């Protein structure tokens, strides 16, 4: 007659090691639904696929959440029922999760380098699409308001742009979001002094206009996202090693 399940084994259920597993999918969901991140991703989206490469990594983290759920279920059931097959399955899930999380961390560095090389092309995007494409226009306006900058390399990016040649700015030299605002709203910008902001005299415009380009600010944003992916991917993968060791030890005791 088979003995009842060992309560000590149940108390050592892998579920006790799952406290940090919800972090990767939570971060993935955050990056996919946060409005600010989505708006900034529009600027660095790959023109061929329509999405930023980092958004695919965010989806990958959400997918890892599914592996975590099934792996944790197998681990808990295997420990409670003292079933070696389920514990081995749990080990396999941990191995797949660890590999996936490491891949996310490594790919984030590769994707960062690819995206950084394209940031300089945003100046051309501004000249061709600002004021014409609503999504791109909002992304530039939000970037300029959030980071207190103007253009990609500076206010001169607006010279010769479609926005200026088609008089979409109604005589303005730069977008209103390039000005120092009184409200900080990129959708309804209210410059402190619109006439001086749009002045062609540097002594006047420099007091009420942001003169720094947004290039370095966007580079910092990309690096922060990469650090987040590396920390989540590699950090969570390190935790899986402890879970794998635990599953092996528990499997030997069964």
UniProtKB/TrEMBL annotation:
Presence of the UniProt keyword Thylakoid in the record: no
Location relative to the cell: Membrane
GO CC annotations on file: plasma membrane
Membrane topology recorded in Swiss-Prot or TrEMBL: Multi-pass membrane protein
Pfam families: Tetraspanin (PF00335)
InterPro entries referenced in this protein's UniProt entry, alphabetically: Tetraspanin/Peripherin (IPR018499), Tetraspanin_animals (IPR000301), Tetraspanin_EC2_sf (IPR008952)
Transmembrane segments: 56-80, 87-111, 225-251
Predominant place of localization: membrane
Coiled coil: none
Entry keywords, A to Z: Membrane, Transmembrane, Transmembrane helix
CDD domains: tetraspanin_LEL (cd03127)
Source domain of life: Eukaryota
Family: Belongs to the tetraspanin (TM4SF) family.
Name by which UniProt lists this protein: Tetraspanin
Organism expressing this protein natively: Araneus ventricosus (Orbweaver spider)
